[in-house]
Amino acid sequence: MKIGYRTIKTAIATPIAISIAQLFGVSNVVSAGILTILCIQSSRKKSVESAVQRFFACILAIIFSVIFFEIFGYTPYVLGVLLAVFIPTAVFLKVEKGIMTSTVITLNLYAFDSIKLDFIYDQLLLIIIGIGIGLLVNLYMPSLDKELKVLQQELEDNFQVILKEIALYIREENMDWDGKEITKVSEILEKADDLVERDRENHMLRDEHSFYNYFHMRKKQFDLLKQMLPLVTRLPEKDIISEEIAIYFEKLSEAVHPGNTAIVFLYELQKLQEKFKEEELPETHEEFETRASLHQLLHEIEEYLKLKYKYKKSDVKSPRSRRKLKQKKEKKMEKA
To answer: Is the dihedral of CA 28, 32, 33, 38 positive or negative?
Structure first.
């Protein structure tokens, strides 16, 4: 059985809050522990938002309690009417996360059967201690980098298999692929979404979130991959064109990694597109549909690569710029 960080934090923060409440001589010290438990959240952002909402909801609850109990009396019916009015008000004021916390304060005031300034001060101390300890303990959040890197590697492994299987399918070497990697990628992206969102909420002041950008890019690429699959089935039977595309998909599968070498493949794709333009025009309706599917497939591959190209700075120079640099060096050598 695995014990989560929220459980550990709750186990640490609750006795601390109760101990501090006892130190200040606050009545109903258990309430401090309850308030702290309610404040433990899954991320820093949620923790801060929760603390702010709970604090204002508790202040609102004290005001409502003074008005209702002091005017109409300390009876269960008045308590019911108070909650019936208070809860919609809290929702309207967008502090609904504090409803449970503020109810603890309301019940404390109801149980005391008399509202005096010193008891209100007592409850304010409870609020500050309970919410404050919960917030402080929750500011520590374990790094999610390790889990995200594992998902990143799993995602890339599955991308490699999908691209390789497409190449094999084009060559008619594996027509029985069950496509389980498609389902696996969907599951990985779903898990990554939750973790990435938590990671962003844990780093509220950070402008750049590399994992968010990475998985967002891969999600869009995956959508394009799914659009490519039916197009691949419409390619012509084994010929020069299909073999060229199969080789291209094989190269793509070998280059799936966190780095950015998309510019190299965009250059190769451009040469492929130029080569296919030189092919004879289709004569039959079937050939026309095949050529249209081929054109669409090349467009999808281009969009797939552009997503990676825009994702981050390229790790390699463009083959065109390398060629120009080589030509300059050759000219310099000739002059020398």
So the answer is: positive
